[in-house]
């Protein structure tokens, strides 16, 4: 069994603030350890369930957050950016399951460090007219490969968001949102134990999934009209209004295009995230 892990940071055990997840934040270095240990718990669970390979993709921000010297040596690691598929880099139909560690709720939802890919430049995303964020797009891209999402960890709001997309996905809430930068934390040892055991249980009862081909429609509403003026230069991308673009393609092409949108947005805006 081959297991793919996408590791974000905002939903990691103990993390609540931008200072925790952005270098050179005062608690960023400590949060890197917390992130690595949450991933290690999932890796242990995967191997307990019979995994023969675990590939971890560092999927947060600079994408060089995980500490290789502390990472379980059985895990392979993709680190750094840019990556054409961003948070999904390295996933292929050869994998049997996706595990999502440290995820957060979409923009506009009252979850810990909630946003969609960028701190505030993206106001809303729709996939086939359904509001989504990082969780829904990742789930759809995995489904396009025919790879089921087995588990997600994060705050309770992120877990609820995943359940709304796919009730069969196991979830582990490692904190309970009190506001966007505040949470009631699950004790660290308890959270890691839950990640390990739930990962193992989810992979032992893994369902199969057939690839889901066909065109889908992605719409993105940006804070800045400047972004729209640039990304509409990409063939196939049209303007719905001054701040919203629409594109239709198969899901994997949409996911890759969306990552291109993010690089364009980064180039034309200079505002820090979490404003």
Automatic annotation (TrEMBL):
The keyword Amino-acid biosynthesis does not apply. Pfam families: Peptidase_M55 (PF04951). Gene3D superfamilies: Dipeptide transport protein. Keywords: Aminopeptidase, Hydrolase, Protease. It is an enzyme of class 3 (hydrolase). GO terms for molecular function: aminopeptidase activity. Its EC number is 3.4.11.-. This is D-amino peptidase. It comes from Kribbella aluminosa.
């Amino acid at each position: 069994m081959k297991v793919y892990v996408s590791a974000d940071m905002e939903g990691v055990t103990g993390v609540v603030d931008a200072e925790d997840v952005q270098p050179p934040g005062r608690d960023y270095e400590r949060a890197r350890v917390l992130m690595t240990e949450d991933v290690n718990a999932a890796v242990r669970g995967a191997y307990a369930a019979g995994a023969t390979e675990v590939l971890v993709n560092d999927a947060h921000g600079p994408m060089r957050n995980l500490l290789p010297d502390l990472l379980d040596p059985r895990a392979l690691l993709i680190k750094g950016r840019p990556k054409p598929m961003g948070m999904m880099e390295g996933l292929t139909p050869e994998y049997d399951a996706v595990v999502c560690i440290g995820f957060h709720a979409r923009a506009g939802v009252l979850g810990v460090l909630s946003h969609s890919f960028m701190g505030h430049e993206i106001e809303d995303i729709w996939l086939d007219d359904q509001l989504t964020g990082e969780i829904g797009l990742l789930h759809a891209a995995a489904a396009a490969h025919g790879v089921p999402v087995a588990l997600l960890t994060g705050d309770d709001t992120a877990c609820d968001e995943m359940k709304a997309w796919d009730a069969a996905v196991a979830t582990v809430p490692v904190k309970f949102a009190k506001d966007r930068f505040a949470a009631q934390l699950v004790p660290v040892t308890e959270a890691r134990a839950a990640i390990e055991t739930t990962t193992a249980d989810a992979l032992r009862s893994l369902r199969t999934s057939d690839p889901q081909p066909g065109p889908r429609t992605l719409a993105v509403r940006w804070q800045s009209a400047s972004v729209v003026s640039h990304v509409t230069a990409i063939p196939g991308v049209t303007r719905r209004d001054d701040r919203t673009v629409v594109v239709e393609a198969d899901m994997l092409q949409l996911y890759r295009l969306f990552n291109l949108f993010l690089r364009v947005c980064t180039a034309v805006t200079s505002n820090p995230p979490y404003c």
